[in-house]
Structures are given as C-alpha cells and as structure tokens.
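writing this on my phone so excuse typos. first protein, seq and then structure
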Amino acid sequence: MIPPHERPRVLVVEDDLSVAEGLIRGLGKAGFETSLAMAGDEGLTRILHERFDLVLLDLMLPEKSGFEILETVRTRVSVPIVVLSARTDLPSRLRSFDQGAVDFVPKPFFMEELVARIRARLALTAATPSRTLPLADVVVDLDARVVTRDGEDLGLTAHEFNVVAFLREHAGRAYSRQQIAEHALPEDGDRIDRTLDTHISRIRKKLGPAGAHLRTVWAIGYKIDLEPR
C-alpha cells in the first residue's frame, strides 16, 4: 500500500453527487488521495490556494463553469487539469484544450481507463523538471507562476509576477520602466511609469526581506540584484 503522504493528490470538481462518489471511491482504491469540490467557485479557490498533483474538472458546474476555471487557472498555476464531461461536442473539446486542459475524458467513462490516463499524465509531469529561480528567501516558479516562501504563495498578481519573473530571469541588468512594461504588462493596459512604480512598491512589500533585491537604478529604472547590499 502507498503511504498516505506519498499518494498523489487529486481534486475532483464535480457537482453530480453520484458521479463524484464513484470517482472518490475508484480513485481511492487506485491509491490516490482525493478531495471534492461540488461548485465552480469552491473548485477555483482550492486550485489556487492548495497543492494538488492533478485536477479532474467537469465543465457544467454551478456558480462558475469549467471553462471559466480553466481560463483563470492557466495563468496562475501549472497543475494539470483533465476535463471529465458529458459535453463532448468538438467545439467544447477544442476549447478545453485551448484553455489549458491536458486531457479530455468523455462521460460515461471506464474507471480503469481514467486511472490509466491520470497515471500517464502524472508520470509525464514528474519527468518534466520545474523551472524555479531563487531570490533570497523566496522562490520564483516560472511554470506555476507563483512566488513562494517556505512553500507559501505570497499572493502576487499576474502583472506583479510578470515584473518579478522578467527581472529575475535577467538578474543584474537594469531596465527602463518602458522596457519592463513592454515585457511584463499587457499591450492594451496601462503602461505609464506611475503604474509600474506602483507595481514595484507592492511587489517589494509582498516579497518582504527579498524585496530589497529589487532595486531602483537612478536615471534608468529597475533591476534585480542577487548580491546583498
């Protein structure tokens, strides 16, 4: 038997109780640690704030649809999401993949096949090294798009993360506000200097002591310097 602390964690986001109970029971027998969310809002919150190795996601959910969850998650975390849905038309399948799903399993399904697909996906994920960059006492995870300290997400927004990731990947080099904005902020968004300065201020607060490495370069802009002052 697999020790509980070594079991892959799977979140099931499914509002049909009979289907959900069958999934929890079948995945548990296959050696997975499972959790259940029966509404879209709860599922999204748990995906963003808890650690799971894989998510099984229905598309037709109360409060927030599976498509809305996919759209939000793909820019925030890198957990693999397998869509499990009775909505099997081609546009729904293609849209699921376009929005970041790694697999699509139509309902009804065979539990044995689903387990095999999950194991294959987890094996592939384990074989792909994550891209992480240290910054003092925090870690910038380029794949998961989070900055963490001791495993805790520091809560950077998507734009704040873009700024940190860009400067950390080019540590030691100073960039103008315009250059940073062009790389980190959306083209149709607010790229004025004052906006970027506000992002920098908030980033420093969220990073805590590591924020001291995000330095202002007089008459140029900003840089991340890995050396202590």
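second protein below, same order as before
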Amino acid sequence: MYVLAIDGGGTKTIATISTFRGQVIALAETGKSNPTSMSLEQFTQTIIELIDNLKIQQPTHFHQITKCHAGLSGVTENNNEEITQTLLTSLLPEGCQLSLSNDGLNALYAGTLGQPGIVQISGTGAITLSIDPFGRIERTAGWGYIFDDEGSGYDMGIRTLKAVFKEFDKRGPETILTTAVLDYFQLQSVPQIIEIVYGEGHPRDTISPLSKVAIECTKRGDVVANTILDQVCQVFYQSIDACYKKNPFSTSRVKVVLAGGVFKELGLFIERLAAIDKKHSNQYDFMGAYSLPVGGAALAALKLPSSEARVFLDQYNKSINKFLI
C-alpha cells in the first residue's frame, strides 16, 4: 500500500508516492495548480501531467496507492473542490481514499506533525490558517496583493522601497537599504528603480524578492530595516491572533508554524513574535516546519499519531533528498 501526497500553490506543484513508513519512491514536479488563477483546461492539464509523471516512474506501485491527500491553493474556493475531487478520482486507482484541502494545511502538518494548530504562510503572498482538533479550518488575511497580503514578500518589498525613496527625498532617515536595493538591481541611482519596477515583468514578482534585502539589512543592524521587520511581525501576530479567535482551541498553548520563503531566517521572526506574545496572551509556540509541505500532505492522508508521524517524516525527509538533488 502506498500514499500519494500533492502540494500545489501559485508557483509550483510537487507530488510524491511513498510507503506508509515514509520511504519515497517517486517524485514529480510541475507548474502552478491554483484553479482560481488559471483556466479549467490549464488546471486539468497540470494535474494530468503530474499524475502521468508519477505513473511513468512507478507503473506498478501507482496502482497500489490506497490513500491520497491534495492540498492545493484555491481548491476550497468557488466550486473548485468538486472539480478537483472529480478530476483526481478519475486519475487515481479505484477505491483510493482521497481528501482535499487548502495548501496551508500541508504546511501546518509539516510543522505540527499532523496535529491542530495555526500556520502563518508568507512567500510572495501571505495567509493565516487555523485547524482545530475537529478539523475545522478558518483563515485570515491573504485577500490579494492589491489591498492585503500584509507581511508577504511583496509587502516587505513595498515597505523597503518606501524607505529608500523617503531617504532619497529627505523625507525619511538614512538607511543602508538604499545601497542594498541599488546593488540588488545593479543600478546607480534611486530614480532608476522606477524603470525596473514598472518594466516588463509583473511588479509583484520584481518587488517581492526585496524582502530578502530587508532581512539582510536587519541582520546588519540597520534601524529602518529592523523597524520594517518589527512592523511585519506585528501584522503576523495580529492575523494569527484573529485566526485563533475565529477557531478557538481548548489547549492552553497553540502551535504556530511559520512557513514560506520569507521565513528563511526563522530565528529573527520567532524571537520577535515570541516577544510580542509575551506582552499579550503568552499562548503561542512558534516553530518552523519539520519537512517540506508535501510531507505534511502525506500526514494529512495517513492521519498518524504524533509519535508515528515523526518517525514517518524522519524517513520521508531522508528518502526524498535523492529526488531533490
């Protein structure tokens, strides 16, 4: 018996076939699989391509898959859950137990080992999700980059550019962010940034990577960059706390997983968030992920107790590396 795990977002989709003990025997990767931001034809083709890739790798074992969980961005919105359920059912072996969720559940379970909690995701966009002991899911934030997605890479990039232009205009304090941004874009002067931002690429894709610049300048002790990080952590905490209030937990302490590209320097964020929590409820345990989100998808399919989930992910993490090299 084998388990199929799928983790899909707005950039890429990854799927694995593994044994119930965590031995990964196949891995496939393709483009985005968010049904809200692509046509039904494109979405269908992406999923078919993913499944076909796995079948080619493991033609015999594929037909022995008995459990599957697909955590996909946008799958629980509009009528996408029914569409995805029908599509995957037609592609999977007969009788395979299939469950679906937002991809946030994958990231949460990858940190909590399949247990309830809250996940704060921050990459190009940002969203907060909570899953209580009864499996109820609530969300806050993540309503799009135009007016929300606070704390995302894009939001941090915007805050960074504002600081740079304010310094240039003498409307704000001096900051090493200016030199760092110019070096990143390989420019000579601040006004040249405008041409880059409003160039051929989407502004969101151009601006989001500047979050890494802000974090690097924070590590170098820049006051303005530190202020940006503090502001972002306040935003995260506000969203986490709101999500908790929408879906309260009976335990005195709640696990909060920080997932996504913005959290590469995890310690910087955990330290600030823990300090904020100490002044307020003092009820959250902040942590990073124990595995890739696709590992969390496998746990969602298997529903293992914590002790067995850790053993599973230990083997899963070890065996998946040969596919990622």
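The mean pLDDT is 93. thats all i got for now
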